[in-house]
Structures
1.
Amino acid sequence: MTEIIHPLHRFVRPSVTSSTNCPGCGNGIVVQSILRAVDELRMDMDEFVFVSGIGCAAWIPSPFFNADVLHSIHGRPIAYALGIKMGLPEKKVMVVSGDGDLVAIGGNHLIHNARRNVEMTVICVNNRIYGMTGGQAGPTTPAGVMTTTTPYGSFENSFDISRLVIGAGASFVARWTTVHARQLTKSIKKAIQKKGFAFIEVYSQCPVQFGRKSGMNGSVQMMADYRRRSIQVEKAAGMTQEELKDRIVVGELVDIEKPEMVKEIKGIKARAMGRPQ
Amino acid sequence: MTPERVLTGRYFMMGNEACAEGALAAGCEFAAGYPITPATEVANRLARRLPQVGGFFLQMEDEISSIAAVIGASWTGKKVMTVTSGPGISLMSENIGFAVGVETPCVIVNVQRGAPSTGMPTAGVQGDMVQAKHGSHGDYEIIALCPSSPQEMFDCTITAFNYAEKYRTPVFILSDAFVGHMREEVVIPEAETIERVYRKIPAQGADPQTIKGFLDEDVAPMPIFGRGFKAHVTSSCHDEAGKRNLIDLSSLDLFVRRLSNKILKHKEEITIVEGDYEGGDVVLVSYGSVARAAATAAHLAREAGLPAGTLRLVTVWPFPDHEIERMARTAKHVIVLENNLGQMYPYIKAAAARFADVSFLPPRLLGQIQDPEDIVSKIKEVVR
């Protein structure tokens, strides 16, 4: 009998034989979308450096991806990625991490690098809870959810991450859910090729923590909910705030051209060295 | 090396500027930092000078991202540094532990100032001596050098880069506002006379499956990014190949011990001290800016017929206990001088107290280096 090998298996680190994800986790869909994008662009993993922080989503590239991977500390992957991009401007630098990592503890680096418009791809897997530590509320947790640190129901306003990054000045911002695997792949391909800060927010189900605590239960129900609530950005444009309450606006929200920092620095260096640019 | 990298010549130069020139001479290619008194002149000079030689200085949103960007750039094979003062080191501390854990060469300059928290930014106080060793969590070893003059700000910065590259570790320059802002003669030698060390990296084309890029007590080759080494870099407990292991305590034990032993095994070659204590019953032990007062006091004491000598620590971490012990065996009294409330004193006392009587002379006012006359009085007191 011939052994059947997954077409994307060649992108997986040979020493990795199992996954640490919980059953029903959305991470696998994000993994596939990233690797399909790399595959469809006919790129090699050696053209990338992957960077992650701390949390469930940070384990997407680390250790799975058979590439240079820096698994950094909590909240700082974008700052590490900036240093890597400074050293290897010709490489594609991709950050994959969660909402707690990139938006709570690491929010400062997210907005500042969006402002700098540094060429890198940042994929933020938004499960709206702290999964790895056992289901604590975060800045993306919707109001009223009883988590382990909000036993009387979460009482804070939550972040609209994509709008935050748009406001900070990123040149590409897209939002999808794990229901939109094909659209997500397409946007990741665009993000990889974007000459600027490219940010993708992915709503991703965490049935074990968020599912139980929000009463949405399993991943099938959670994905059905994503499908029901999602609305394309083009359709949403004509709707009121009230009509959009509880909806997930999906699609490519921003795709503009503006000066990119690493390229600007190249020009500054040439000037400082007295060379023609 | 382009000639602009090394500004060979004699200068009347500020310590902080000499530090920046030392970094350039050592081959620094990338630096990141955040404005802070009394360290700004280093960053200002790097910002102007690095682009002239094809490098770059980035001002970041805070000190946390500064050290993170520096570590990231080091993993691309660049020689890197950051510069700050105490509050910045406090913010950087978690990331410094990361640099230790994944064995990242980088230089961290701390131009020390006074007091916990905001304190007095313009006052020179040796307040962060133990923080450099223990600021981040967990057991680890670090290298730290203490320059006493603008010339040493230049020289020690080069040594710091060489140690960082050789041992794949963060190396501290523990200066202070006195040495940082002091102007003195600085001689920058010819470029070809400056020793520059570059980290070992795996052979080009090495099979990623066979690379052991971590946890060698004699320093593993660094599988830097962009060369096809497919490095997996994690500060989680890992093995020699970088593979994470969060289950076996034997793996944890190996991870922590190997990292520490990498420094301790090479302690002798890392240690730089300057001893002038032959025949001295009383030895003044000091480092950094305070060593200048100690040298003057020893001179005055000898002129007055008192048997005084000095021992100056340039390397403070790993702690040079053998050199302290060697000195203490020949001395009767050891006086420790620091511009703080006694940070290195317990370490010096632990190494010297078996052989000599050890006492501490704090400054009259913190931030005011001991008056040499006061030191001479103390010498008279202990020999009485």
2.
Amino acid sequence: MADYILQVKKLCKSFGAVEASRDLSFNIERGHIHALIGPNGAGKTTVLNLLSGELEQDSGRIYLNGEKLDGLPVHKRALAGLGRSFQITSIFENLSVSENMALAILAGQGHNYRFWKNSMKSAAVESSLVEALERVDLLGSAGQPAATLSHGEKRQLEVGMALVGRPQLLMLDEPMAGQGAGGTVALKKLIRSIKGQTTILLVEHDMDVVFSLADQISVIVYGHCIASASPEEIRGHPEVQHAYLGEQ
Amino acid sequence: MSETLSKTVLIAGGGICFCLLPWAAVLWGEHYLISLFTRILIYALAAVSLDLLIGYGGLISLGHAAFVGIGGYVTAIFFHHSFAGEPLAGLIPGSENALLVWPLAVLAAAGCALLIGSLSLRTSGMHFIMITLAFAQMLYYFAVGLEKYGGDDGLSLYSRNQLAGMDLGSDMQFYFVCLFFLALFLFLADRLVKSRFGLVLRGASSSSRRINALGIPGRNYKLVCFVIGGAGAGLAGALLVNQTEYVSPGLLHWTMSGELMVMVLLGGLGTLFGPVLGAAVYLLLEETLAMYTEHWMVYLGPILIIVVLFAKRGLFGLLTIRE
Amino acid sequence: MILFIEQLLNGLQLGITLFLMSAGLTLVFGIMQVINLAHGSFYMIGAYVGATVAAATGSFLLAVLAALGAAGLAGMVVELVVLRQLYKRDHLDQVLATFGLIFFFNEMTRILWGKQPLFMDMPVWLKGNLELLPGLIYPVYRLAVIVVGIMVALLLWYLFSRTRLGMQIRAGASNRQMVAALGVNIRLLYTLVFGLGTLLAGLAGVMAGPIFAVESGMGESILILTFVVIVIGGIGSVRGAVIGALLVGLVDTLGRAFLPTLFRTFLSSATADSAGASLASMSIYILMAAVLIWKPRGLFPSHQ
């Protein structure tokens, strides 16, 4: 019996007449890099939003480590072990790189209703900041405003921030989007390096990346998961070929 | 000169000027200056509390004046009942004691901010802006409806509150009380924005998506910020009512909120100390320009637009050297 | 009963005014994502120009045309000079800049027309009352306002559902980028939408002229009510503007008419009147709060 860190059972979500998710089910094994692929508009980002709690499903269940995730608000799911990067990189543009990372560190320190002492001088920040920045190669840019980072560096920062909380499941939404060749290589290296520490759910369009990194691939078409198997099996899967290439 | 040094010099310089002003006024024989600058100090307090909301929390509240008004009315109502000798609602005795009434004014303003904030923060963006304006207007009409306390005409106080052994009737003493509170609020606010709470707040104002994805319920922190801002405004209201010995619904009108916003913008958003400068410049302009033309507002409009479009960092930003 | 119907009609008439104000504004909010605080100024311009032309020429129709022209023209100038700079800016900048516009316009009217309110005569051919039902006497003018409002609503309905421009506007309200990508001249669309909004505001203003006093700052009191309508109806939704406007108009009018009387049943008459009036003026905000608790994005939020 496989050790599933995430179980998604028959998720349904409609926006008016549009069915974004139809009886969507798949499971993710602990320690895997699990990729979600599918044609444009298939509903992949919707799945991530349903998992993270930004959207509420109409029906269906989500289990993280066997615990029900439904009904929990976004921040509670994050504390339960869900980390996320967004399609459009989401960091704190008005803060410096250090402050961004410091916030990520402080997020795991219980509540932050502390009004007196300087945030950057708190114990948790002073002990973990350098390491957290080094992990994503941003120690050199520590003092810079985050808004001045390059696109790739912003993505690194975002992933770095998500990693601080030692997530059990890290969801990456099209991390390679907008990256040049160099950026893609760096990110692939980063993802491989964290593979042991966390399970990764990767939504990606870049098939080279998907097939070189993923242990398991689930294919979403019209909001439904039509196949979930190893990369070799997916490559030869007739329905998947049909979905991507149409009638032959 | 580095940025921090120029900031420190500016703030210290300003502080010294404010401390010396009353003596200078007496020296020049222009006693009314003390009264004018007391008004500046009080408006500065209200503007700084608004800067906490807008500049640090990203909360564009168009109804901040309502909290100033609440603080003012609580002070005035307690005074009225004490003076008239009859208790409020037949139960609570009135009071002229600042040590009792001012904290109550602050609490009342904070309480209203908690209510209004929890409702308004269910929304964001344009909704939030409109809703804060609407709630403030609601409180304005509520104040107008308070027939017992003057309604539209407002309420006059017989004198200023009693504060321990001091004589607040003396303009000089009252000036320093206001200066004390402004300095105290600035000090506390400065620590606050640099603290963990402040960091979370600044992050939440930048990206509520990311703050929640990190595991922090951003909205709750914004609410606390809203309440703290409301409390500061409430104190300003109590002081203002003492200064003018009068309160009226006009204190809650949206035009007042607008004036506070202009002060924050002119002085410098997100600088805390900038709004003090903004309040001074705005009120001094009002005094001097009004002497030349009663229609000075027609110039203020375009000036405001130009500042917004081209000089967002305000006077404080212009005066401190960027590194 | 008669009194109730009369107040119902009054509420409808206020609702029409609010609809005219909010239909354009909700589109500006929804399509251009610009928060425009100066919308009330066009209402005021319509009223002032209308009142002046009516007094000078004695013709109400000319006054209406002049008001529409002035509001529309002022709208285009504002859009070109100020608003265009604000589309890409954040909401705070928009709030502050449009605040500047309010200061400017309010003071301008004081300069041009003085501080005293203007009065606008009701046109002779709309004076008088009509007996709608036995015992129900209602002013013709107010009926005319209701009729005009319904006609405008129908015109807008036709515009939005049958014409190409209307379709582009509706599409823009739910997906701006897509519309631009489809090659529609977005700049022109924006100017037209904004102009439509100011035209409607000017119409509302000139029609309100004979009923309310025409004075500096009149735009802002109606603007706040307009905001309440938009919050209740949902940003970007004209349907929401209709429902919201009717709700607000009815609640406000019926509240003012009947709450004091209701309070008199268990309070002394002086307290009842002031408490009732106070609660009545707060009633629409309480309504707004109630809607927000139930639906934070309004009754008909557009999916943007």
3.
Amino acid sequence: MGVTSIAQDSLTVDRLRARLGDFWLNDISFSIAPGQVTALLGHNGAGKTTTLRLIMGIIRKDFGHVSLGGFDHVRDEKEFKQRIGFVQEESFFYKGMTVRELCAFVSPFYGAWNKGLSRQLLQALDLPGDKKLGHLSKGMRTKVSLVLALSHEPSVLLLDEPTSGLDPRARVEILKLLRKVTHEGGTTVLFSTHNLHEVDEIADRLIILDRGRVLAEESLAALRCKTGPSWNLEHYYLALVP
Amino acid sequence: MNIIHLIAKDLRLQRNFVLPLMLLEVTGYLAYALQIPSHIPGVAFGLLHGVALIGDFLICHRTMIAEEKNRALMFIKTLPVSTPEIVIAKFGVNILLVGLNTGILLALWGGGREFGWIEVAPSLTTHLVLVGLTMHWLNNAFFITISLVFSSEHAVWVPFPALFVVITVILNFKQIKIVLHLEPFVDLLQRREALFVGLIWAIIVGFVVMCSWTLKHKRIFA
């Protein structure tokens, strides 16, 4: 399975601000270098999903800028999304469609859709093309989301808790695939998670959100270096976000 | 091209619904129309449009529920598609399905007269076909607008009873025209078919623009 990336662009989020009811997301800023894997951490309600949805334009921002390779996420919406693959925590698909029909529906929207790669991914993830999406388990639907997000060979992959609620086998398969796309394809990844073990396993950097603010933004290698052999992500995280 | 792909997706999703709906409408209409005495002109034709009006509503409801039930607009929004394209495609698929639905009923009317099943007036003219189709597109566009603006197919049920008012107006239009002194206006629109059709299309385009603007400025899309 040859996963390649179409471009090496960095994702920049600058002073992103939005209000959702009584929840405020305040001046979220970060930049992710090409090929870097960044984990978005935080308690429930910290603003992880909101941040990802704001980047994708599903939620309207009040202020701020998001750009990828010079393309603004609102002004150049289509060009921006051509370069991004997004996996939502819940897969909102047409349940009456089969996996193959969904791929056939999504493929024409992407100029760089790779049919061969899509077929390979379906096979590698053991997804039945003729099965209706409504009959798939949550893990299978997440895998379908991943196939859709990767088949146009995006330069950036956004994942909202991709392994939450999955059985260990599906979780391992998804992490294996993520490692492959980042190491072999050089894809930039931003993923939200509650699983610190996963962060330690695949991330290069972490961003910790708390009550709609960025609390910390660190390189894991630098943290490990600073702390030495006593390094423990759980202790570090809990010390920051009590 | 994106609009065409979105329309094709909706047509694929609705393929198992459209045929049974049309069969039901045709048989339901025939069951009533054939019992209407031929000396009451226009009633059978009014009834035909009444059936088509309910068809317009059901088509809108079905195409919107496909998104609502699956929260699929949220998924569509993650694709490289603009909000106006999503809205135009939704109106586009409805225009196609309503055109087909009304077209079949009008063809039934024309065929019925031709073969002598239905003896009452009016005979089918280009004017009647054009005006009939346009009115059904407007009716359907109104329901789509409600549904998109309020992001819920449930919202379309709120103005649903208004359909019966519209059906009553169609059935009694001759009397209403006299009572409300609308004859000069109706005559003008009848003489200037293009003006009438243009006016209705301007309203439909207005609905499309309003939906695009509303969805673009909503806090959460879908």
